[in-house]
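Please go through the protein record below and see whether the fold suits the sequence. Record follows.
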Amino acid sequence: MEPAMRYKSIFDGPKIIRFRRPKLSLQQLNELTPGEFHKTFENVIECWPEAAIFCSALLPFKSFVTLVAAFENYLERLPADTKLKILRLYPDLAGKMLDTNQLSEDSSNEHASVGLDNLSPEDKRTLTDLNESYKAKFGFPFVVCVREASKFEVILRSVSERIHHTAEQELAIALGEVKKICRLRILQVVDNL
């Protein structure tokens, strides 16, 4: 039986070549050097490698659950202004970064998993308008774990409902979504929880 594998994409002209990498066992995780840990987990929180740097100091981990908890605790302990910085690093769903191929590999895969890379012009316009209204109200883009939302309609409903929250409510909800994204990204790297 083939071990659990992770895909890595490399762009080669107009086509994408995917290489499969084995997922890390707990022993392999705990044998990583700090530099290897940083590289492996640098984007589990979008474009925020500081989390991986912090969590590498906690090696070894007793389980993958404690690894996930370390990243979640890291997020919780940050000051409010840093939490806002992190939220502002997340791309607009189906936004300009998608259109110009500037998304991280993780975000690109997540967008594609629910078809955000293949929306009709009308759906894209609707989502863009909602994103802009949301950002104008809260000062950061709408963040949702799209792999859990699983359908475009669920994402639209979510942003339409959440835009009526208070800033305090939405900050807490958005950070909860970051934790979900982080957990799923970790699951792409490790053997299991």
The first helix runs from residue 26 to 30. Confidence is low (pLDDT under 50) at residues 1-18. Strands lie at 5-12, 15-22. The two ends are 20 Å apart (CA to CA).
